[in-house]
Design brief:
191 residues, mainly alpha, Pectinesterase_inhib_dom
């Protein structure tokens, strides 16, 4: 795992040192233009501007940064899920949902590493397909808690600080994971 993370970080340095400069704003605008995810443009700009190396990265470098942010986010999601499981006090249905989320996020981490390799070797279609599978894990986790309707039986536990009564405890985690993955895929599509 550490070797894969090191590879990802080295890829950032390699990609970030080549090519023409593309501003974060330009890249995000181009990636979101004409997509059904136009609402992610400000999320894209804010997220990438906060990332080290983004100011001097070209579009491919920003794609690498977005992918590595996805990797970090999914790793943190697994830690959050483990903590929620450790904390206990969940019904059987909730425990099953947390187990589904943990399994899907761990599976997604393996696929992200494959997507990093696809991006490094210029296989855009493979990257987009793999990141689509990664994105699906956040959706599956949300579905395990009754979906996005918010009228499930999982409110009142408050595992996530942003969770409201009637929402799954991982709603914010899943939303961030889905948004990061979508952002990364849309940037790669424009390359």
């Amino acid at each position: 795992m550490a070797a894969r993370l090191l590879f990802s970080l080295l890829l950032i340095l390699l990609v970030g040192s080549h090519g023409a400069f593309a501003s974060v704003q330009e890249t995000c605008a181009k990636a979101m233009k004409g997509s059904e995810h136009k609402n992610l443009e400000s999320f894209c700009v804010t997220t990438l501007q906060a990332a080290p190396g983004s100011a001097s990265a070209d579009a491919k470098g920003l794609a690498v940064i977005a992918t590595n942010l996805t990797l970090a986010n999914y790793t943190a999601a697994v830690a959050t899920i483990k903590e929620l499981q450790r904390r206990g006090g969940w019904s059987d249905k909730q425990q099953a949902a947390l187990a589904t989320c943990r399994r899907r996020y761990i599976e997604a981490l393996n696929v992200v590493h494959s997507a990093v390799h696809a991006l490094a070797t210029g296989r855009k279609q493979a990257y987009v397909a793999e990141m689509g599978a990664v994105r699906r894990s956040a959706i599956d986790c949300d579905d395990a808690f009754g979906g996005r309707g918010g009228d499930d039986a999982f409110g009142g536990r408050g595992g996530d600080a942003a969770a409201k009564p009637g929402e799954a405890p991982l709603r914010k985690v899943n939303d961030d994971a889905e948004n990061l993955t979508t952002m990364a895929m849309l940037i790669v599509i424009t390359l």
